[in-house]
Design a protein that fits this description.
Length: about 260
């Protein structure tokens, strides 16, 4: 009996240790972006080439919103003063609720499809991979925080989907940074409109006052790292940050996997 028990335990350990390899031996699958056969022993269903193709945000960025400044200098309407101060023209006229926002890569090509996988197919290993990239950004930019908070979904939307995609990134990120994970802090009180595509104006309208801190939860003097999958206009991060600041948070830094490029028009 004892010998058999040990044998099974051994097999169990071997199975769990070799699960990645087993997956690729028994279920050879292609990369979810380019269909190349996956040869590396990883649970991320995207090949190394595709992961390496994501356009990491680099060069000079706006100190406030993190938008690459190159978009403005190439546009012809270059503002020398803005480039010196490293604040984009948009942030010179708009006051965001967050102190700063930063992203891992530009929202285009393969990254758009990778985000879809995360968002609609709950590919958790991909969430962990993105968390690794965001941890690198947080360390490189010395983003100071006391807690990691995901942008919440409205409870009805979360019930339909079964999970919040921002959780899949923010939770492993908190672990990698050694910070408390505080998903209970924020709630979305107003649902997103059903309409699939929103204009810029509608985006701002749809999130205005849509978030609140949960009653009874202490936010005083907290420095929050607010995490989402994509930053488009910044309206969502802005609305969440306003709710947190209103409840006494000391600072809010937005951190997203992807950044939709804006143009100076
Ligand atoms: Zn690929
Ligand atoms: Zn800016």
């Amino acid at each position: 009996m004892a010998a058999r028990f040990t044998f099974e335990k051994g097999v169990g350990a071997w199975l769990s240790g070799a699960s990645d390899a087993l997956v690729s031996v028994f279920f050879p699958a292609g990369c979810r972006l380019c269909e190349r056969v996956l040869v590396h022993a990883s649970t991320v269903p995207i090949c190394e080439e595709c992961l390496g193709s994501f356009a990491a945000v680099g060069g000079a960025v706006c100190e406030r919103c993190g938008q690459p400044l190159a978009a403005w200098s190439l546009g012809g309407a270059r503002d020398e003063r803005a480039t010196e101060n490293l604040v984009c023209p948009e942030c010179q006229t708009r006051e965001y609720g967050f102190d700063r926002a930063r992203s891992y890569a530009l929202y285009k090509a393969g990254l758009v499809r990778a985000i879809v996988l995360l968002k609609f197919e709950r590919v958790e290993p991909l969430g962990r991979w993105f968390a690794g990239r965001l941890a690198e950004v947080a360390r490189r930019e010395a983003l100071a925080a006391d807690a990691v908070v995901p942008v919440p979904l409205h409870r009805q939307r979360e019930r339909e989907r079964g999970y919040n995609q921002a959780d899949l990134i923010a939770k492993p990120l908190a672990r990698k940074l050694g910070l408390p994970y505080r998903a209970v802090l924020l709630v979305r009180t107003k649902p997103r409109p059903d309409k699939h595509i929103l204009t810029l104006e509608e985006r701002w309208d749809s999130v205005r006052g849509a978030f609140a801190t949960r009653p009874g939860i202490k936010v005083d003097n907290l420095r929050v790292l607010l995490v989402d999958d994509v930053m488009t206009t910044g309206a969502t991060l802005d609305a969440c940050a306003r709710a947190l600041r209103g409840a006494g948070a000391k600072s809010v830094i937005g951190l997203t996997v992807a950044r939709a490029a804006r143009h100076p028009s």
